[in-house]
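Study this pair:
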Amino acid sequence: MTTTPQLSIAGEYNLRPANKAILSSVIEAFNEDPDSALSALPWIDLRKDINHQLSDMLFDIETASDEDRLHFWSIHDSAGTFAGMVGVGDELQFANSHYNLGYWVKPSFRNKGIAIRSVDSILSWLEGRGGNFRIEVAVHPHNDAGLATAEKIWLNWNGQTLEDFVGVELFGRTIPHKVYLIDLPRNG
C-alpha cells in the first residue's frame, strides 16, 4: 500500500493529502463558483445537500488514501490558503487504466498554471514509484478550461487523445467526454 504523500511545487504551493479538515474551504470554493465546481465534480446532485455530499467525498478520500486506489490533494499557497484540489481516483472508463485524473482550482487562483504544475508533481511522483500506470483524463467537451488544461497535460506527458467521445455515466445518463490517456513511464 502506498500512502498519499505531501508534495510541493517549487516552494510556491503545497499539495497536502486531502482530508475532512478542509471541508469549510471546499464548501466556500464550491459556493464561489458552483458551475466550475460541478464541471470538476459532475457527480454532485443539486437536489441533495451539497455540504453533506462534499463531506462524504472528503471522508471517502481520507479513508481510501492508504489503499492506493486513489490519491487526492488539497492545493495551498505558501500562506496556507486553499487554492483547489487535484488527484487521481478510480472512476475508470477503460479496464487497462489505473487512475483517472481530476483537478479543480478556485477562481482567485486560476490562470496561474497551478493545475498543470500540480498534475506534473503528481505524475512525477507516480512515475518515480516505478511500474507502469495508465491515467485517464475525461473532460466534458463544453468545459473549455478543463479541455485547455488537459491538452497541456497531454502534451507535457506525451499522452494520446481518443478521437471519438467516450460515454460517461452520470445520474443514469450517458454524457460524451473527450478522453486523454497518459502512460507512465512517459515515452520520450
About this structure: The chain is about 30% helix and 30% strand.
